[in-house]
């Protein structure tokens, strides 16, 4: 197609049964926006038109690298212009869809006639992103202090620094009809199971939604069970954790604009394993991990057990403790279930208020509000001292969960246990526990069992589940991942060279 023929392509064409806009229509749509710039300029040899979105273009790049050569007059054709400008990402195209996409991506369009094609596209995208900072949700005393940011390029850089291997594969695609959000799928070729990789790719490709603002959107859309309160993909803000999990053979998902990375497939026990566990001696790490698991069980069950015991099974309470309970509840007019619900809902209100307010104000509300409301409710006779202590300990125990999404699930689970404890007592607790275990047994993450290695039982994977054994015993990758290379390092050499934590 000649240059003149291209310059007359102002009518709408059809491609694959779909309407294809002409350059006139593309630029006409952009002109309705106040940040769209289009002007005519000329040199001694040629006249040209420049078009770009001011808010998407780095003006220093435009003024220092592009405009001097444009005004110099040392070019007559777009090919000469492409060879003369000292910028790598320059393309010449007649595809108006590409032109529209690139303009929205921060490119500058240069045409030799106002609506003539082909056009020259020069990348001058402005990159505004906050600097790498400390982790806020998964903060650790020891270990690296870097956290992901909202830039997908910066996040990939943080991972590549930790895995400088050519086998690290990155597959990028765009999701969202309006947002066209960049999504990157990361895995290590030769280690990750291709089935897991293809599952993630296919599910993300099948997403039909207009706006993808954060990785949490992707989590809800590609999870195996959309009606489960349990997160089925691990959400983390730590590059060191992502690098370590990718080395195990899992798949990562980075979403542009989100400071959190998704990892899958995952298991229930991983949500109670802090990455700090690998920075401590294995005995200390195992102890802390068991404390977290105990704290979760305590947070869910202690208040429902209190309600069930006082409502139906008070004969199980020792005599000395019964006297204390009677004196504590002597002036409380409410039944145990209303008393417990009052305090539990008060704690949740304080949490939500603290989370939605500015940091300094939220901390003040949480501390002062808890003290004032707790003291006032006891003095007013609305609740007993013992239940106030139990609910406070329960709330404190729920904060030990390293992953915030799982912490929200633990908060919610207390209420069905409370209601069934009021209805059927300890039998109701067992019934609720059976429903919970049935749900967890049926739950999967990218098609893999969510309760592994507890069920199906895999003793080899228990080395880094409820407890963490020394590194010398962790010579194999988790068997549930079905990795292409299950061996992390030769176990015989590990026995010859003992770890420092043994």
TrEMBL record:
Keywords: Membrane, Transmembrane, Transmembrane helix. The keyword Ribosomal protein does not apply. InterPro entries: Spore_Ger, UPF0353/GerABKA_families. Pfam families: GerA (PF03323). The keyword Protein transport does not apply. It comes from the Bacteria. It is found in: Cell membrane; Membrane. It is a multi-pass membrane protein. The chain crosses the membrane at residues 290-312, 386-405, 417-441. PANTHER family: LEUCINE ZIPPER PROTEIN 4, SPORE GERMINATION PROTEIN. Belongs to the GerABKA family. This is Spore germination protein. It comes from Metabacillus endolithicus. The lineage of its organism: Bacteria, Bacillati, Bacillota, Bacilli, Bacillales.
């Amino acid at each position: 197609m000649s240059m003149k023929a291209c310059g007359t392509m102002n009518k709408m064409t059809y491609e694959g049964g779909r309407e294809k806009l002409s350059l006139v229509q593309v630029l006409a749509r952009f002109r309705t926006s106040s940040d769209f710039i289009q002007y005519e300029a000329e040199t001694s040899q040629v006249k040209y038109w420049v078009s770009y979105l001011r808010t998407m273009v780095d003006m220093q790049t435009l003024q220092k690298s592009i405009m001097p050569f444009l005004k110099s007059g040392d070019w007559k054709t777009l090919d000469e212009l492409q060879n003369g400008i000292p910028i790598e990402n320059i393309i010449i195209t007649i595809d108006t869809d590409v032109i529209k996409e690139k303009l929205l991506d921060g490119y500058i369009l240069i045409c030799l006639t106002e609506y003539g094609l082909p056009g020259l596209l020069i990348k001058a995208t402005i990159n505004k992103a906050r600097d790498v900072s400390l982790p806020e949700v998964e903060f650790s005393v020891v270990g690296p202090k870097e956290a992901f940011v909202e830039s997908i390029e910066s996040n990939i850089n943080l991972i590549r620094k930790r895995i400088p291997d050519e086998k690290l594969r990155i597959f990028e695609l765009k999701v969202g009809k309006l947002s066209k959000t960049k999504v990157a799928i990361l895995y290590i070729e030769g280690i990750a199971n291709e089935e897991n990789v293809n599952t993630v790719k296919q599910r993300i490709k099948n997403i039909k939604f207009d706006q993808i603002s954060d990785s949490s959107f992707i989590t809800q859309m590609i999870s195996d069970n959309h009606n489960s309160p349990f997160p089925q993909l691990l959400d983390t803000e730590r590059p060191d954790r992502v690098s370590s999990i990718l080395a195990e053979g899992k798949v990562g998902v980075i979403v542009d604009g989100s400071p959190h990375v998704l990892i899958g497939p995952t298991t229930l026990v991983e949500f109670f394993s802090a990455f700090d566990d690998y920075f401590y001696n294995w005995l200390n790490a195992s102890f802390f991990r068991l404390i977290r698991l105990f704290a979760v069980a305590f947070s869910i069950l202690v208040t429902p057990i209190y309600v069930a015991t006082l409502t139906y099974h008070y004969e199980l309470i020792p005599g000395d403790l019964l006297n204390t309970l009677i004196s504590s509840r002597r002036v409380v007019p409410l039944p145990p279930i209303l008393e417990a619900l009052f305090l539990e809902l008060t704690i949740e209100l304080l949490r939500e208020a603290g989370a939605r307010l500015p940091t300094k104000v939220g901390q003040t509300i949480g501390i002062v509000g808890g003290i004032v409301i707790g003291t006032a409710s006891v003095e007013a006779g609305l609740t007993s001292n013992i239940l106030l202590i139990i609910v406070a300990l329960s709330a404190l125990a729920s904060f030990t969960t390293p992953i915030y999404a799982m912490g929200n699930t633990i908060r919610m689970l207390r209420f069905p246990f409370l209601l069934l404890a009021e209805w059927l007592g300890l039998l109701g607790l067992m019934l609720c526990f059976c429903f919970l275990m049935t749900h967890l047994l049926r739950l999967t993450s990218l098609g893999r069992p969510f309760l592994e290695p507890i069920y199906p039982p895999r003793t080899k994977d228990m080395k880094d589940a409820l407890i963490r054994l020394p590194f010398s015993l962790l010579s194999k990758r988790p068997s549930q991942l079905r990795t292409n290379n299950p061996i992390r390092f030769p176990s015989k050499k590990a026995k010859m060279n003992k770890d420092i934590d043994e």
